[in-house]
Amino acid sequence: MNTLDITTMTWSAQTQSQSVLPFYGYTATLLPNGLIVDIGLHLINIKIQIQVFDTKLYTWSTKPASGSTIASRRHHTAVLTQDGNIIIYGGSIYDSSGNIAYVFSDIAVLNTNSWVWSAPSVSGTSAPPLMPHSATLYKNYMILSFGTISTSILYKTIFIFLTYKITPGLQQTKLNKVTVIPQQIMILQIYILELALKLLRHRVHTIYETHIPTIYTPGIHPPAKYELIPMYGVPVPGNNYHSS
User: Fold this and answer.
1) Where are the domains of the chain?
2) Which tens digit of pLDDT belongs to each residue from 205-229?
3) What CATH architecture is 2-181?
């Protein structure tokens, strides 16, 4: 295991006394309690397994998960939801010759408190089988982008899953809707959002400037008329305005 110090931007090798199972094409998810959950394909018994690394104790452990049967895979993605569940999507398996045998389009949820797998139902337009794609969680939205199912079919469409809790007491996450957004529309939306934020910051800065109080020197009469005009050309009512 190697550690990157983001302050000095230097790598260092960590000595491990434990033997670690060989994994390939796995995902690593950091939990708030300092545990790193590795989910991937075990190269010896060709079975999906869960390995956990404790960043505080520097120890490895294997978690036996129960619940729904999850097919072995690699090159999938994983995100951590706000309620502490890990959602994996996609991935693939290979034949004995090293060729892609199957690409998955299913979703699996791992409860990191009970280590129980579940396979929630999904409504709406389904995302295609993907590997190796990217997945990012923004609030309650899992954003899937790019990926492929072969060397000749590449995707540039953005897929968004809406996640929410079925029952707050069960802490179970369900993906109930899939939204397909073409890449061009996504880029346009990002551009519009950035433009709106710039205008908002500019407007707040302008309003702040127009509300700076006027300081008068004792013994010197204030000007007969004082008015600030914001950049947008609209007078600000009641802003240090004195009629002549």
Assistant:
1) 2-181, 183-244
2) 554 444 445 555 555 555 554 444 4
3) 6 Propeller (2.120)
